[in-house]
Amino acid sequence: MNGTDPTSDWIRRFHRSASATSRLVCFPHAGGSASYFHGVSKSLTPDTEVLAVQYPGRQDRRGEPLLDSVGAMADAAYEALAPWTDRPLGLFGHSMGALVAFEVAARLAGDGVVPVGLFASGRRAPSCYRDENVHLRDDAGVMAELNRLDGTDSRLLDDAELREMILPALRSDYRAVETYHYTPRPTLVCPVWALVGDDDPRTTLDEARAWSEHTTGLFELTVFPGGHFYLNAQADAVVDLVRSRLSAHRTP
Q1: Catalytic residue among 8, 33, 95, 172, which?
Q2: CATH for 117
Q3: pTM as predicted
Q4: What tens digit of pLDDT does each residue of 21-39 get?
Q5: Which of the 8 DSSP states describes residue 211?
């Protein structure tokens, strides 16, 4: 590769590294954007080059039509990643992003591209279904859920203009997650590392442990103190874990 980013609205590379021995693709949570992983990119460079997925309908893609299915997000992200598979590729997804990352891993495997591993953070396994309807609530109900998960500064939610910017993408993402149904397929062969907060209202330890059913490779569950957005307070520990696992499992 010549250092010039392949043309794609879907991929953000905050820090280039010609010496990186692997890449980590990061998939944001519902309502989230690529910039959420800027700190991760800075911390992992230069050994690992971070690519952050930018879903449509937010930040510099705010004017684009939203996608309200995990499958559609995975299809587009998978296509955008095609030029980046010249180095070992790990996948990290938080919450909704874990489902998108899982679906992308399955698509890559279908092409014979085996990821270094999948980091599934803050999300129950694809085969664990809950009947949820946040996307059907009124605006106050959606914002109440966001407050409950403590993932956004409450002062931002008090700003009417910011709420108007956040809500369409957030509701669409919740629709994608809550209408997702796992379709049985060949299990992954790459390692799956599940990460979860010990007080996460959206993922129990048993639901996180069920990720083991989706790979024939290594499985590991790591529990951190905190809720659904445990990684905000545990960023250094999460980065250390990611660095360690990528270093141990990537292939030349």
Answers
A1: 95
A2: 3.40.50.1820
A3: 0.93
A4: 999 999 999 999 999 999 9
A5: G
Q: For residue 65, is it within any domain?
A: yes
Using CA atoms, how far apart are residues 102 and 214, in angstroms rounded to an integer? 9
Is residue 186 within 8 Å of 216, Cβ to Cβ?
Answer: no
Q: 109-119: per-residue pLDDT in tens? A: 999 999 999 99
Q: Which residue has the tokens 């043309």?
A: 7
Q: Is 35 a catalytic residue?
A: no
Between CA 159 and CA 167 the distance in angstroms is 12
* 250 in Cβ contact with 88 (< 8 Å): yes
Do residues 236 and 209 touch, judged by C-beta distance below 8 A? no
Tally of domains in the chain: 1
The H-or-E segment that residue 25 falls in is strand 22-27
Angle at 121 between CA 181 and CA 89, to 5 degrees: 95
Residue whose entry in the numeric block shows the structure tokens 């590294």 = 17
Asked if 170 and 142 count as a contact pair (C-beta separation under 8 A), the reply is yes
- Give the number of other CB atoms < 10 A from CB of residue 168: 14
Q: Which domain holds residue 84?
A: 11-130+184-249
